[in-house]
Amino acid sequence: MNVYELIKKKRDGLQLSADEIRYFIVGMLSGDIPDYQMAAFLMAVYFNGMSARECFDLTMAMTQSGEQVDLSGIKGFKVDKHSTGGVGDTTTLVLAPLVAASGGIVAKMTGRELGHTGGTVDKLESIPGMRVALDRDEFVDTVNRIHVSLISQTARLAPADKQLYALRNVTATVDSIPLIAASIMSKKLAAGSDGIVLDVKTGQGAFMQKYEDALELAKTMVKIGEEAGRRMVALITAMQQPLGRAIGNAIEVREAIDTLAENGPSDLVALVTELGGEMLLMSGVASTREAAKSIIAKNLANRKGLDKLAELIAAQGGDRSVIDHPDLLPQPALKLEIASETTGYVTAIDALAVGLASRVLGAGRTTKDAAIDLSIGIYLNKKIGDRVKTGETLAVLHSDGDNKKIKAATDIFLKAYAIGPDRIEPPKLLLARITGAGVEEL
Ligand code: URA
Ligand code: CA
Fold first, then answer.
1. Is 116 part of the annotated catalytic residue set?
2. Which of 202, 291, 397, 423 is the most buried (most CB within 10 A)?
3. From CA 225, how far away is CA 79, in angstroms rounded?
């Protein structure tokens, strides 16, 4: 095969065969195909898209580029969940223990921050002693024992994705639906679960800002997963404003603990109930969506989910007393209130800007391998629909005390809030449900 001819073929809008797609992936990993030719291929895909068959073939080539986790040592139906990324998305920390406490089995690999979106692994590392790098045997043993484990995705999982993502990031080819679908699904398929519930975010704070694009992405991923023999469902949910009230690492662990103690923000509780319901339904724990959701609600109310989080923390070497004493989590050097400059109702909170403000404050990495200060973050006192008066606290910055960072973050943050004279309803969270059978608008 000739790389030049293959790039030309894709550029001219023709379809590549499975072998031709595999040739690109294998050649990239071996170093035989240089970055500039891969970049040209990515741009051709960006402009011409991919057929469903091409996208499936790309996903499988990427899945097979590294380790494919064998979870057959775990008895029962393993269910995974994936969010396409948002701001302050505390979901996994609440959902994984809650589903396990409700009869599901969650053997989950999870990642670090990507772009402006946070990563569950970073959040978990703010729990003293918590280990996220279990070897395969310990991972399997832990899930068999307590029905849940959360570990860090290794570099051996879909290595082709890592290289492609780095190239996409610098060639303006990240926001391509087939490339995002293949990127996410290659990792999910390699991670080995039997069923996958996707939370596809749309709105300002999401990769897919437009609803139509989120729908297309969801349909594409559901199709790929089913073709690969997995059970699939996707929910499209709004990321119009950050989810819950906490954005950061330790601060989101605390929000997860509060939520499992029935003291959580309503949007986070609602999302967890929907996603958890889907995971139980898919696992066969309940036979209707309503029944599945009421099991989740029951295990929030009786704190079985919270007990399971404590069990999970202890099983992975962490200090389970953080559950009763969240002050054991990393604490910021300085908490600083941001006051509203006007009176009215919050009408919008630009999630992307809040994510950025949190990074500028120090909650994100500035270079690829930099350590992050896990104590840093933002707590939102006011969300869309809330009334606020001049001088009242909009949010609290959890800071390391660096004035330059505080000033930069505050400037970005204040611009993220829109305050107007009339109250508006908080945005609808749940927009659509996608299965192989079709789209149900909610
Ligand atoms: N998340 C991923 O894992 N990959 C993408 O391309 C976009 C979001
Ligand atoms: Ca949150």
1. no
2. 202
3. 13
